[in-house]
Hints:
Nucleotidyltransferase, domain 5; alpha/beta; 5-stranded mixed sheet; 16 strands; single chain; Arc Repressor Mutant, subunit A; 3 domains; 13 helices
Amino acid sequence: xxxxxLGLLGTRGSASRAEIARVLEISPATVTQVxxxxxxxxxxxxLEQVPSDGGRPARLLGLVHSAGGAIGAKVxxxxxxxxxxxxxxxxxxxxxxxxxxxxxxALDRLVDILGAAMDDRGDRHLLGIGVGVPGAVDxxxxxxxxxPTLGWNDAQVGPILRSGLxxxxxxxxxxxxxxxxxxxxxxxxxxxxxxxxxxxxGIGCGIVVDRAIxxxxxxxxxxxGHTPITVDGPLCGCGSEGCLEAHVGEAxxxxxxxxxxxxxxxxxxxxxxxxxxxGDPDAxxxxxxxxxxxGRALAGIVHTLDPEIVxxxxxxxxxxxxxxxxxxxxxxxxxxxxxxxLTYVVEPxxxxxxxxxxxxxxxxxxxxxxxxxxxQGRLVRERLHAGQTExxx
Length: 393
């Protein structure tokens, strides 16, 4: 709950305690207690009084922007996107570095990249670093990663980064980081249970239940891209056949476009998208069919988890107008009657959202009631407290 209040103040600006209670749908007594702790820790401050509807004037609460910042990094198969983020969720600076995850020195290279980002921040108070990866992570605090798309199996990402950088480092599946960012800064502020579904190179899903990320027994929950769709279907990167991702992931869409002559033998998803925009019927049918398969699979996920809302985003979202005709019909048709009116929201995309999500791990960790951040969350809290002590000296 404290992280939700920080996110609300960061995205909407100053607010009274009554407004916070109304927007987050929590009791005024809870808001009073939580904001008292945030005031003690120096994360928020009381601003001017505003008139109220009877009774004494209400005081607005706002963020203390000097309380600290975080670095977020999203690791991909060919680059690392890095952002410097303030407590309000505003991206101060973003950049991208080339990266080869299969290089024997890949993790040393990642230490150098993040070390450079730390140096670029100067002496501004750094609470920690969050790293998002496209794979399973044992837990945020240790950060042992298995990511087939990166060629990593039990990669010691967390230990190596913490040793090389000397600051708290939290590592998480990249789609889970987006779900955390939605909870702090986005639509998730107003919902306790929701799904974040990503389309693009792969198909991923972040699951939030009772305002906490559901990670599963080994950190691999949400791999809906590997839901079996067809028998003896195309080979998936996971080694199985007929997975959703093998049908509708970026590589699958491009392969189908090449087979049908929509693009040439070296054509890309950009060419497929352009052809669909130009009205090519084969290109549009490829997207329509992909949307149908996604809608059918997601209906099953909704029946299993019963979310309040579904958010759809990712690098493939630019072509959503071509996915949607197949998706909308299949999604609604395969939902049971009581769930057929479920809202889904399609969000615009920019790559730094991945890295912002990773930074959000750091901001959420001081108030991690589920204990996902472990010892690294404790270290973030210590840095937060030390920074506030120094600012008051």
